[in-house]
Amino acid sequence: MNLQFFVILLYCFTSLSASIIIDNNDYEINKFKLPYFYDETRSLKIDQIEKFDFDQKTNNQFTFGYLKGNLWFRFDITNNSNKDEIILHMTEPFFDEVNLFELIQNRWYKHQSGLHIDLNLRDMYDISAVFVLKIKPGTTKRYYVQTYAKFAQFGEFKIYTNRAFVTNYRLFINSLYIFFFGSLFMVIIFNLFLYIRLKEKIYLYYVSYIFFHTIFVIGFSGLTIYCGLSNLHYKIHLISIPFLIIFLILFETVQNFVSTSNSS
Question: Would you state the pLDDT for residue 16?
Answer without folding.
Answer: 42
